[in-house]
Amino acid sequence: MKKNLFIAIIMMMVVSMLFAACAPKNEVVDEAVQEPGVVGDEYPAPGGEPEVAQPDAYPAPGGVITIATDATFPPFEMVDENTKELIGFDIELMKAIAAEAGLEYEFVNLPFDPMLAGLSECQYDMAIAAITITEDRQKEFFFSDPYIDAGQIIVVKAGKEGINSKDDLSGMIVGAQLGTTGEIEAQSIDNVTYKPYDTYDLAFLDLANDQIDAVIADYPTALGFIAKNPDRLQTVGEKFTDESYGIAFCKNRADLVDLINPALQKVKEQGVITDLAGKYLAGE
After folding, report:
1. Label partner for 51 (CA 20 to 30 A): which of 5, 44, 125, 167?
2. Each residue of 217-237: pLDDT tens digit?
3. Which residues of 227-236 are buried (b: 16+ CB within 10 A; e: fewer)?
4. pTM value?
């Protein structure tokens, strides 16, 4: 009798365990699975439809934005010899834009070609360094709205005669900075001996010392150097290309373009660019 009772109790325990195993999961476990931030899970967006978290998305613009530049391009970007801080037209403009857009940022200073290469690989979020907007570059980067006219112009030693346009450069030695549109234009002229330079400082120094015949450079860049050397350098002719500078962005950061363009427009309306031109560019 006791034996039969013991067997019956055992059977009841087994049945209870089987029912427990087949029971649905409780709500606490389900909520843990749906916790926002878990990759691949859906969860309701505030006031809208469920959204899927994107594991490869960049952080929201509230994080620290890396801004690449090449501080060897006065008057647009350079290093103050006393404070060792970045200064120049582009640096001040970018600070004004960032303040308007509410961005936290840090500058990264490196040579122009590696800067563009790193930006194309999204090592940096964006770049400002007197970057001319071109069709080829637009394949690699997003660009902001233009912020200054940057057509190419010829610079010669003050008082030099016989050069009035790029057609007069045939048979001469012409310098420009590596990786710039000035280099592209210099190399496109027939029968020119092109001399590349790491920076425009060196190109204009050689020009002032009669080591080369002319330099092709962006118009605002030329004005900046002439402002510092009015007795040694001069432009000739008119701008012969239609170009503009823009802020470049890694192609994963379309979100930044949408933030920067309205801020850029705002600082334009505030007269910031006009003030910077008066501060850094000669007579313009």
Report:
1. 125
2. 999 989 888 988 889 999 999
3. bebeebbbbb
4. 0.69
